[in-house]
Amino acid sequence: MDSSTPEPAAGLPHVTDGFERLWTPHRMAYVTGERPSSEPGDGCPFCVSPGRDDADGLIVHRGEHCFVVLNLFPYNPGHLLICPYRHVSLYIDLTDEETLEFTALTKASIRALQRASGPQGFNLGMNQGEVAGAGIAAHLHQHVVPRWGGDANFLPIVGQTKALPMLLEDTRQRLVAAFDAP
After folding, report:
1. Is residue 12 part of a domain?
2. Residue ranges of the chain whose pLDDT lies below 50
3. With CB atoms 3.0 to 4.6 Å apart as the test, which of 12, 98, 141, 160 could cross-link to 65 if both were Cys?
4. pLDDT of amino acid 65
5. Which entry of 61, 79, 141, 143 is annotated as an active-site residue?
6. Residue 152 is part of a domain; what is its CATH number?
7. Rounded CA gap, 69 and 41, in Å?
8. Is 141 a catalytic residue?
9. What are phi and psi of 118, to 5 degrees?
10. Given 3-state DSSP classes, what are the helix, strand and coil percentages for the chain, each rounded to the nearest 5?
């Protein structure tokens, strides 16, 4: 080994395949199926987040019935989630007032993202139930994912790693300012 090659951990073989490694052990919970609790109250991350201050809860905007929060594991910078405060799992279970605000905050999120970072497109979606891909199926949330030409490359497929050019708090601050803009 030359001086630029790190020493392997005790008892582990040295791998010389020429690849750099970006370790993301926090993602193992998703690989092993140990997802965050979806129990109401202290167990559900979407119930806990509004009880924190905005920076700690990654809250971008608060409404009367719903709120906008950054995704802790974003697909792209600015990946937002619209969530009702009420712990409800299905879109059809929202009250009329919640539905109106849920929709209004989706539109406001798109406008804020356009002001903050000028995406060329968006993916919008809700996964209803675990079988449909919902990571936290018991608390309804809609994804608003900004997209740019060339934002997806080989890294997530080959390296199972997503490179994000901006820290979550920097993204949150930028979006808070864009939400408040006229």
Report:
1. no
2. 1-6
3. 98
4. 98
5. 141
6. 3.30.428.10
7. 17
8. yes
9. 55, 50
10. 35, 15, 50
User: How many other C-beta atoms are found inside a 10 Å radius of the C-beta of residue 107?
Assistant: 11
Separation between Cα atoms, residue 55 and residue 77, nearest integer Å: 16
| Helix (H) or strand (E) segment spanning residue 125 | strand 121-125
d(Cα 98, Cα 83) in Å, to the nearest integer? 10
User: What is the edge-to-edge ordering of all strands in the sheet holding 142-147?
Assistant: 59-62, 66-70, 80-84, 142-147, 121-125
Averaged pLDDT of the chain? 80
Q: Which domain covers residue 53, as residue numbers?
A: 46-123+131-180
Q: Would you give the distance in Å from CA 179 to the centre of its chain?
A: 18
pTM, 2 dp: 0.72
Count: domains in the chain? 1
Q: Does the residue 31 lie in any domain?
A: no
Ramachandran area for residue 129 (φ above 0: left; ψ -120 to 50: alpha; else beta): left
Task: Give me 19's structure tokens.
Answer: 């690849």
